[in-house]
Each structure stands twice: as structure tokens, then as C-alpha cells.
Amino acid sequence: MSAEPLVTFVVRARNAEATLERCLRSVQEQTRPARVVVVDNRSTDATVAIARAHGALVVDRGPLPFNYGRAINRGMEQVRTPYAAILSSHCWLRDPRHVEVVEELFGDPTVAGLGGGLRAPTGELLTGPHRQERLVLAPGYGFSNHSSAVRTAVWRQFPFTEELPASEELDWVGRVTAAGHAVVIDPRLHVPNGHRRAQGLTALHRRALREGWAAGALGLEPAERLPYLSRVLSEVPAHRRWALPLYLVHVPRLVEVHGFVSGALQGRAHRRGDPSRLPPPA
């Protein structure tokens, strides 16, 4: 293993004692070395002790109100390696070569950010890296800060916005691609983010509301959904298509869609100058 890490993981955490150890252990089990910075959001459990026991540098998220962009920026300020990987404390790396892939893809100097995804914007299953040179908003596609990676020098020029309650990564991808950089989505870096639905329907709706508000405030429009849905549904085995109506009325999915659409309408009104459409609280 190389004596000098090229990647630092920035892990956001709040009362994450149930998942943080698995998260950090997945970093330690990588085939390439990496440093870890844990940004603690006022935890009252054993989160900080677990982080320190695994050799992580722990920093407080600071005195200002919490949002994702602000917390990530606090951690990024401590990064001294060429690349940083952003990871939620609820997630863990599935592949011990994750850091290897990050280093490989950043070998292209035009690449500013990396994400893990399984499908292209049009719905096809990805079989290799997918280069993104403009912001695309499509279901299940793109750069997400539950697990992503950034080139540190580009982040210093383009830190994450601290003005949005969520979806700071969408704003970031828009700015860095407009400046001529690229973002690469590679299925080898895929990390599931099912934790967003594990905290209950009320929390899921609040989160989707914040994400929708941010997308509306940024003026983003979703990509065409019908080709994507057609592609995904066509891949369902014939003997299971009887369950498609259940898929379409899945309660958590409906809660998520309602929250996102409601938030997007409010964010769009805010963008058009309605001062009463303030961002939803974190």
C-alpha cells in the first residue's frame, strides 16, 4: 500500500453510533489508504468516540444553522490530499477497490467530480464510466453527496453552496461543468442510499421537500421521464409485471414525490421573487 494517501473521506454524522463504525471500517478495508475527517453535527451519543477510535479527525460543523453544503465545506477545509470522497455516516463502501477507482478516474485532469450510479439519464444500465459535461436532472442518475468524490483544487475554487437547504451537489455540478470541467458517473462507485427511507415517512417528506425546493430555486427542470420509465419497466421480468401497480403506489415513493414536487413549486416561486417562499427548515 502507498505510504501517502491521495484521498480523504469527509463523513457527515449526527447521532450515528449505529452505523458509523461500519462506515469507517469500510474505509479502513480499502486496498488503498485514505484519511478520514468526520464532521459532527452536535451528536449526543457515542458518534465522536467511535470516530476517534477509528483514527478520524473530528471537527464540529460550526455555529451557523445546519445545511449539507455548510457541513461538507467544514470538513473539506481539513483536506490536504488531492482528492476528497464525501460519504454519509449511514452508508458504507461495498467494494474494497472504491478508492482505487477514485484515483484511476481522477487520472483524467478534466474530471472535477465523481459519482456512483447504475443508470444513464435515459435509463440504460451503465456498463462503464459515463461522462457528464452539463447538469442533467433525471431519476436515479447523477452526482449525489451521500457518496461522491471531488478534486480538492476544484472545490477550493468552487466550494459547495451554503445558501440551499439541500441539493448542494446539483448547484456544484452546474457551476463546475459551466466552467469546463466534467463529472463522471461510474457504477463501480455505486453506494446505496436507502437510509433516506429508514427514518420514517415524516422525515422522508421533509427531506424531499428540501431537495425539491432547492431544485426549484435553481431553476432546474427534470429530464424527460417517459423514456426513462419505459426503459426501466421493460426490464421487469414478465412473471413479475403483475406487481407494477404496487410499484407505482408504493407509499414511501408517493411521499417522496409529493414532497419533492411541493418543494419544487415553492422554490420556483421563491426564484421568481416571492419572499414568503422561504426554504424549508433542516
Quick overview of this protein structure:
By secondary structure, this protein is of the alpha/beta class.
CATH class of the largest domain reads Alpha Beta
CATH superfamily of the largest domain: Spore Coat Polysaccharide Biosynthesis Protein SpsA, Chain A
Q: What is the number of helices?
A: 10
Determine the CATH topology of the largest domain.
Spore Coat Polysaccharide Biosynthesis Protein SpsA, Chain A
- Number of individual domains: 2
The biggest sheet, with number of strands, parallel, antiparallel or mixed sense and barrel status, is: 8 strands, mixed
**Gyration radius from CA atoms, angstroms:** 19 Å
Broad shape:
globular
Oligomer: single chain
